[in-house]
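We close this part of the discussion by returning to an individual protein. The sequence in question and its C-alpha cells are set out directly beneath this paragraph:
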Amino acid sequence: MSPHKLRFIFVCAFVCALTGMTDKAKAQGIERVSLSGENLAEQLRQSGVNQAYNMRLGPVTLRVEADTTTSYNDNINLDKTGRISDFVMTPSFEIHARWNITDINSLNLNLGIGYEMYLSHSQNNSLLVSPDSEAEFNFFIGDVALNVHDGFSYQQDPSQIGQLSNTTRLARFQNDAGISATWDLKDVVLSLNYDHTNFWVDQSVYSYLTNQSDTIAPKVTYNVDESIQAGLNTSFSDVRYEQSFQNDYRTYSAGPFVTAKISKNLSVDAQAGGYLSEYSKGAGNGDSENINSYYASAGVTHRINNAINESLTVGREFLPGLTSNFTERIYANYANAWQATPYIRVASNLWWENLNDSNATFRETSNRYGVGLNADDSLTEHLTLSLRYQYILKDANPSSLSYYQDLGTVELHYQF
C-alpha cells in the first residue's frame, strides 16, 4: 500500500476517534419559527438591532475583520509525478456594512478581499474576492418580502473543482445578480427566485469555459406543523458559452423536499426529483449526451450534547463539465465539532465524491477522498488563532490525472 494511502487511513482513524467522544442525546420537542409576513418583518427588525458592529458612519454600521494565513502546500499543481510545493501567505480583510433605511428595509454589503502570495512561484500571486461577497437590498411590497442581490467572487484554487488535475490555478470571476420574492400565507409559502450569472475565466487555456446563464426557480413550501416543512422545488436554467468548445444547454428540474426538526437535538432534510437537460450539438468537445435522470440529497444534523455536534450529507447531482457536457457527482460528507473549552473548538470532516464525465471525446472518471482537521483558540476577545490540515487523494482514470495533496495552514483572525 502506498505511503499517501496509509496517511489517509491514519488521519481518518484519528477523525473517527474524535467522533467517539459522545453522550446520548435526550429527545425533546421543538417549535418551528414561523416565516409569516409579520414574523419575517420582525426578524428583519431584530437583525438590524442585534447586528454586531465596531464602528458607525452616520446611519451605516460596520464590522471590520482582518486575517493573515500562512500555508504549506506540497502539491500546488495537483500533479501525480511533477509535484511542486510552496509556502503561500494570504492577508485579507472583511467588511460587513448595514444601512437600516427603515426598521424593515435594509441595504447590506459583505465584502472580503485578500491577496495570495507564493514565496517561490510568484507568477501565481493573485487578488482574491471571497465567495461570500454580496450586496443586497431587503424590502416589502405589501405582504411580499423582496430581496435584490448581487453576489460576486474571484478565486483561483484548483482543488475546489474536482475535475481539475495537473494545473496550479483556475482564475475565475463569478457574478450572480437577481431578485427573489417570498409571499408567506402562513400555512403555505410561495417564493420565486431569478438569477443572471456571469462566469469569466481569466486564463487562456480555460477561457472556453466562460459562460452566462439565467435561472428561474419557483418554490412552494407547506408548513405541515410546528416542526415539519414540505414542498416542491422547481428550476429552469439556460446556459450559453462564449466559445464553441462546450455545448450550450438548458436544464429543467422538479421534485419534493422535506425539512423536519425531530427533536431539540436532531433535524433532517431531504430532496429528490427529476432532472432533464438538452444540449446543443456540434461543439468541440464531441459530446452529444443529454441528461434524463434524477437528483437527490439528504442530510442529518445531530447535537450529541452541549459541546459536540455532527452532521452527515449524501447526494447525487450534475455539474457543468470541463471537457464534457456534464459530470455526474455522487458525494458523502461527515463533519463534527467539539467545543472543548469556552475558548477552544476542534472540528473535523471526512468526505468522498465520485465524478463521472458524460460521453465526450476526452472524459475521465475519478474518486476523490478528503479529510480535514481544524482547531480554533480564542486568544483574546478580538484575536483567534486557527490551525488547519487538509488532505486530498484523487484516484482517476486515466491514471495520469491522479494526485494527492497535503495542505497545512496557520491563521490569525482579528475582529476590530
In short: The two ends are 49 Å apart (CA to CA). Residues 3-200+262-274+294-415 form a domain with the Porin fold (CATH 2.40.160). Residues 203 and 392 are 24 Å apart (CA to CA).
